[in-house]
Amino acid sequence: MPHTSTIIYFDIAAVVIMLISLASLLLRGLTKGAANRVYLSAMVLVTLTACAALAGEIYDAIIGPSLVQYGPYVSEGTRIARTGVAMFYYALRSLTAPAYLVLIATISETSHKLNSNNLVRAVLWLPMIAILLLILTNPLHHLVFEFVDGVLVRKPLLMILYVGAVYYSIIGIAWLIRWRALLSTNEFVTLMMLYPIMLAETVIQYFVPELRLDMFVTSVVMLLVSAFAIHPETRHDNTVDAESLHSYHEMCSHAFATDKPLCLVYIEIVNMERLRELAGQMELQGIVRQVSKNLAARLERDDVLYYLRNGVFCISAHNLDPARAEEIAWAAHNEGRAASNAPHARFSIIRMRSCVVRVPEDAPDVETLRNLGRRLSHLVPGSTVTTFTELAKRDDFKLQMNLANILTRAIENRSFEVYYQPICHLADGRFHTAEALVRLNDPELGWVSPSLFIPEAENNGTIIAIGSILLEKICAFLGSVDFEGTGLEYVEVNLSVEQCVRPETVDEVLGLLEKNGVDPSHVNLEITETAATYSQKVIEENVRKLVGAGVAVSLDDYGTGYSNIARMLSMPFSLVKLDQSFVQHLDDPATRKVLADTIATTKAIGKATLMEGVETREQVEALQEMGVDYIQGYYYAKPMPEADFLAFLKEHNA
Ligand code: C2E
Ligand code: MG
Ligand code: MG
Known about the structure:
Layout: H1 9-27, H2 34-68, H3 76-107, H4 118-136, H5 138-141, E1 145-148, E2 151-154, H6 159-178, H7 185-207, H8 214-230, H9 232-235, E3 236-237, E4 242-243, H10 245-257, E5 262-269, H11 272-298, E6 304-307, E7 312-318, H12 322-338, E8 352-359, H13 366-379, E9 385-387, H14 388-391, H15 397-401, H16 403-413, E10 417-425, E11 430-442, E12 446-448, H17 450-460, H18 463-478, H19 481-484, E13 490-495, H20 497-500, H21 504-515, E14 523-528, H22 529-533, H23 536-548, E15 552-558, H24 565-570, E16 575-578, H25 580-584, H26 589-604, E17 608-611, H27 617-626, E18 630-631, E19 640-641, H28 642-652
Parallel strand pairs: 8-9, 11-13, 13-14, 14-15, 15-16, 16-17, 17-18
Antiparallel strand pairs: 1-2, 3-4, 5-7, 5-8, 6-7, 10-11, 10-18, 10-19, 11-12
The structure holds ligand C2E and magnesium ion (2 copies).
């Protein structure tokens, strides 16, 4: 019967929605990466289906009815065209539910499970192939539909399409439930909701057949998937044309949850900073993109390239053979050198380091992988190729990999200790001041150097908690009777960059001083030169507030960073601590000249000078000649626990 009352506006809307979404995906370049590619293919499938549906509807609603009156005279061409469109539509339609299943598997990173063995393959794909064959062979048997007197007539076996949709929906729902843990709540709810939506649409369609809702609903469903489950823009890092850090994190956790054996090759550009200095930020990006391109050229079918930022890449492959992984690592290494001929890299050799890791043999859990990604630059020396097995032999391996845990444990137990290093005032040879330095003795791994854990604590934010613990301990000492008898003027306390840029730090320091009854003049806070180059406004404000409250502030490690004399002049530092590197090169006439000038200038603007890291008598004499006020170093004393420090002062200041 002719469908004169068919409402085709929904199909028109579906085609428009799909074309706009497709264009938007393509224009934004969101076509890279497994999930985006599968999503894009599904979009193309739905768009073609919607076009076929619309073509069919237009025929049935407009052309068909006018032809029917000529009945037997409908041309052969019209017949072939209409059946062709119908066959095309039904074939594509039968692929929608399986495509949806593939989409779910891709989003949950379980697509390898779709092909895990022959039985799974047969259960998953044979029904789809059978239905497709049935539709494509319809001209031979006309069991699915037939064109009779200018009208398309549905035959009983068309039911097979619905049976297929139900079959794949059940598998899809089961898949979602099985891998629930691998999906965020948003992803899970969105993907799950689509089934009742599609069911409702089918029911409506059954009762109101002239309402052609199906393609419209499907296209809206695709938009929902894009908005809540795929986030195409978070999956791929377009700046370097590799999968994003977000995708890498997902891949890691999913690999463990699904027992997916993996071989990972971590590749890092070692000299990022140097390249940035030489070439500038823009050119550096070109270099990173070039490296990414070179790496991508090495990928085979199942390999994926991720960019983890700061010049670190990771290639992952399902069942990648470690020998080939090492080949990739070496190739990356050599290409880095060769890429020095590339237009972007005319500035310097690109140095690379890489490490091959097998999952789960090497890294039994996600945490190990994450730590490895983060600590790679500390673990792999220079620009070399190595394997996880090699790294695991290093003495400090356990320490490096457990740094975050060590810090958490130490914060929980407040087990940081404070050591004090006496500082000599050259004018009278006495020790009026000292520097408080943190020490950490882990119950399992022993002493951990602050130069190792302070940077990590700054990166992961625990430095704030550590800073508070230290400040409390130091203030407790400064407020004790022990301190009163020492004759010390003040103690230098290191502030980390993170503490410096926090507006709350000032109140915390002043609050602790008050609580412990410590005179503000007994504390001198050290701000490193590198800290002073960050967020100038907040730091300047903090320094002024502290100085205003009577707490002096010194500039630590002067001579290593980039801050200029003007900057140093503009801040109310009372003491400038010259960096140890000056002492190490004291034999060099140029260094001596720079140092002498720096000391003279600093003194000329009314600030005291201190030299750190002094170990020999000759160094002391040379520095005395240049007019340094204070000296801190092993020559006089190493940092020591509170009790030893008190004994030292008693002996030397008597
Ligand atoms: P810094 O503030 O420049 O501290 C001076 C460092 O030089 C200390 O290392 C000290 O032990 C070491 N040193 C002193 N005299 C000599 C010497 O004659 N020769 C040599 N080779 N080294 C000497 P330490 O204690 O390992 O601390 C390293 C860095 O860690 C510190 O450098 C500071 O930046 C940071 N740090 C230490 N304690 C704290 C703290 O309580 N809070 C914060 N935020 N950072 C800290
Ligand atoms: Mg210091
Ligand atoms: Mg220093």
